[in-house]
Amino acid sequence: MDDTAVWAPRTAFTLLGTAVCAAGLAIFVAMLNLAGRVVMELGGFVTSGGPYAIVQPAPDWIGIVPVSLSIGFACGGWSAYLSHRAGGVSLLPPA
Q1: 39-61 as b/e: b if 16+ CB within 10 A
Q2: Are 29 and 72 in contact (CB under 8 A)?
Q3: Which one of 27, 28, 32, 74 is most buried, by most CB atoms within 10 A?
Q4: Cα separation values, 41 from 33, 38, 70, Å
Q5: Can you name the residues that pair with 47 across neighbouring β-strands?
Q6: Residues 64-94: pLDDT tens digits?
Q7: pTM
Q8: For residue 87, which phi and psi values (nearest 5 degrees)?
Q9: Pick from 19-23, 30-34, 89-93: least confident
């Protein structure tokens, strides 16, 4: 029995998963960068509510920042795990 035939689906799944996670990491890092750009254009300090004087309110979509951080970390971790499993190099350090 040929060992490569047994490992081929697992390796294909691992490589596909690595590619999807790397793409997800790139997308969520780009979303974080774009959100940071908008906040810096508004003066670098935005908030909603609280005891301080609010000069510039936070945009309604600012909740995407913690979501992009969480999903970006998850994609980065899975990408590192899957690339290690496939015997490749992780793309997490350059990210």
Answers
A1: beeeeeebeeeeeeeeeeebeee
A2: yes
A3: 28
A4: 12, 5, 24
A5: 57
A6: 888 888 988 898 888 888 877 777 777 677 7
A7: 0.68
A8: 85, 20
A9: 89-93
Residue 15 and residue 85 in contact, taking contact as beta carbons nearer than 8 Å? no
Q: Tell me the pLDDT tens digit for each residue of 33-56.
A: 998 898 888 877 777 666 777 677
Task: Look up residue 93 and give its two tokens.
Answer: 């350090």
Look up residue 22 and give its two tokens: 């790397």
Burial of 29 (0-12, 13-18, 19+ CB in 10 A): middle
Distances (CA, A) of 47 to 34, 36, 61: 18, 14, 12
Gap between the Cα atoms of 26 and 40, Å rounded: 21
